[in-house]
Amino acid sequence: MKTLTTWQDFAGQTGAAVTTWNYNDAGVLVSKRYHDNKGPDYEYDRACPSNTSAMIPM
Fold it and tell me: Domain tally for the chain?
């Protein structure tokens, strides 16, 4: 999933807020952005095996 839209009033289709997840070319999550374009960036600890990488919000 790349985006998710939530609604304050779904029936009236008003108050939409889109959350976006951004991935690098390897498919690794690098940031999450809320409707106001704010949100965390992520870095990963390369010392961890790829299937257990520690996700660190920056």
Answer: 1
